[in-house]
């Protein structure tokens, strides 16, 4: 049995129909009309201990709803979930002791208290033994570089510092599973990088199983070994990043650089001009051609000064899936 077992879950929300005008509002007081919004439709997956899984999809795909079901906040309309052998939405307290949750848009810190004080409150709340608390506090203060601000009130902290403190807080009780919902949202490049490194460190040092939802594909490429892609509540793909690229990639990119004026690009079968700048062509090559065939052809035909194969970013592949 896997650590996380999700079997054919569905989640429907009952939503009140909007009313028009005063009469409409009055009528709705007597008899409200509802419609059903399907947020998650027949999703199944298993996650083993120690995996880091990226759970991705466009806005409204059902990512947060799934995470809320896994963390016990929501009950599925049908289907079943077990996490660590328990049903999270039926045994919320027991489940809460074994998981850490970070919602990028929501802080668990007390605005007026120094971070260190919230940590102490959390120790009492979760009944964390002194030894474990002190070890974890030291470990997270070090890897998340929190020494400079741990004694400052939360209201004085930057977004990046708050996110680090939230991550540390959610891990103080040594949970088996960490749910991260958009942890790098709104952060600058350096803070994103630090956070990604720390997520990978936590997984390596503590064998924490991590499920990460994000719109930033650099997060996925940096830390996830596996990707689950969903859209409109349904699962589209579940597998390794390499399999994902193999499955969805239609070809690869070639960049040609010229130290003279750009030659005229001809309409070429199996080659598509994606981008043209002052002295560059970026070409998408169909996967029916080997890189050797493509490079030989392009060098003979256009005689570039430099030519490179470029890796297609996961972000671009996903964008193609949802725009095609
Ligand atoms: N409490 C709720 N009541 C009604 N509808 C909801 C509720 N929560 C989510 N939904 C709807 O369910 C669908 C899935 O929402 P969800 O928040 O899971 O998507 P998401 O993939 O996390 O999106 P995003 O990337 O924008 O955060 C959306 O259409 C949303 O409007």
From TrEMBL:
Signal peptide residue numbers: none
Gene3D superfamilies in the cross-refs: P-loop containing nucleotide triphosphate hydrolases
SMART domains: AAA
ABC transporter domain mapped to chain residues: 24-257
SUPFAM superfamilies listed in its UniProt record: P-loop containing nucleoside triphosphate hydrolases (SSF52540)
This protein's UniProt keywords: ATP-binding, Nucleotide-binding, Transport
Molecular function GO terms recorded: ATP binding; ATP hydrolysis activity
InterPro entries (alphabetical): AAA+_ATPase, ABC_transporter-like_ATP-bd, ABC_transporter-like_CS, ABC_transporter_ATP-binding, P-loop_NTPase
Protein name: ATP-binding cassette domain-containing protein
Organism expressing this protein natively: Anaerocolumna sedimenticola
